[in-house]
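Notes to self after the call with IL:
- keep both proteins in one doc
- input above output, always
- annotate only the second one for now

Protein 1:
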Amino acid sequence: MKKFFAIASLLALTLSACSDDVAQSEQKGEGQVTIGCVAATNVVDTRANVSCTTPSVEDFALKIEGVGHTYSANYATIAEFNNGNNYLHLGSYKATVVAGDIAEEGYDKATFVGSASFSVEARKNTEVEITATIANTLVKVEVTDAFKTYFAGGHALKLTTAAGNEFDVTAQTEPIFIAPASFTIGGTATKQPNQSGAEGTVVTLPNYVPESVAAQTFYTVKFDVENAGGATLTITLNDTLVESIDIEQELNDNAQ
């Protein structure tokens, strides 16, 4: 009889322990959270999708912060959180995902960032879907046929970022991904030789610095030459005129 009661007591303790394990998250007031992510390549102004390497979900690092309460946790990947202890105490949170490094500027160097706020309820599963967008500024420099004709001796253009990185954009075909900060475009251009056979004059083009720069925005800077009433250098940003200079009177003062 004593042996029977001992076995019965052991069985009761075992069942109690299993019950505690099942209800543990409920007792703590916790809920399960699953994070999902998708990368979007659309940019502002043109509303077009940009051709670039798109990260997979595994490429995104994750940070979860409490909203209105102290909580912060970092994960190397989203999977590390989803496949681990993905229970959070009831309350409000913000999840941020990042893929890439904004400090690494260049061609096809896109950085994606996204965030979403969510609330956790006890004994409920919360699915959080985050759309990560391009965090860079994209820049492309173009010259018109009229510019090439006037400066028949050739030209050289350079883009310098706020971080000091320099890129040759003389014959650029793809956008450069840079940090969303100021950038400068400058260079030189050479006129065609005159009738006497003397070499064409080399002129220093004015440095162009945009007034403001934003993330997830594609900037097209275009150099053109208008000949109506005298040769004029024009610089446009996304088809909006931002600078107009009389080539004969002003640019020649900087001839090299």
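Protein 2 (the one to annotate):
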Amino acid sequence: MKFLRVEWTKKRGVIALLATGLVVTSFVLGGYVATGNWNPWGNRHYYQVLNANFQECYTPLGGTPQCQSAHNVIFDASAKYVEQVIEKGTGGLCTVGAACSFNFIAMTSNAVAPTAGMASTGATNGQCGNAGAQGGTELAGGSANGFAAAAGAVTDISGSSGATPSTIVKTFTDTTAPTSVAQSCLVNESTIDANRVNLAAQTFTAITLQIGDTITITWTITWSWS
């Protein structure tokens, strides 16, 4: 009887081992079918916005570019809006599309530095240069002299490993009268209304552009993959 018990115990061990092997094999095969990767743990990719960097290159008419670069400020309230867009669709503001996305660059002469905790949405605080207590005015309407908020050219992220950037670039040309600029913002629409969200802003050494002078603004958002 002991002999039979030993044999039965061995059989149960083999059966348990085979069952475990089947479970693991099924998991690996299922992962391969779903991802095309034999390592079911190796296909998990997460990404996050690490930072957004700003550069302006001012070019006097007939002159050479003079550039400044700086790390930006992303407003907390606007980052919350981005989260709501992802999770809820609109976050209660404009529906995401060609006229409502963060590829619009706005300008202001206000040199008061922004801080992350400032209010940054709506027709008042969503203006470039008027977040929170900045107290400035965005260059807009007929007095903008060519600096009204406008969509930039977007280069999408590429690749799926390491750090990879996307860029938004816009060149403004002074068209009417000498104009001072000292801050740029990345906003979600050209119109200043209740749906306006100012995502990021950066001040720089003030420049007074003359008619025909240009300034190229580049916002670079870097993503990290793991």
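Annotation: The chain has a mean pLDDT of 80. The two ends are 58 Å apart (CA to CA).
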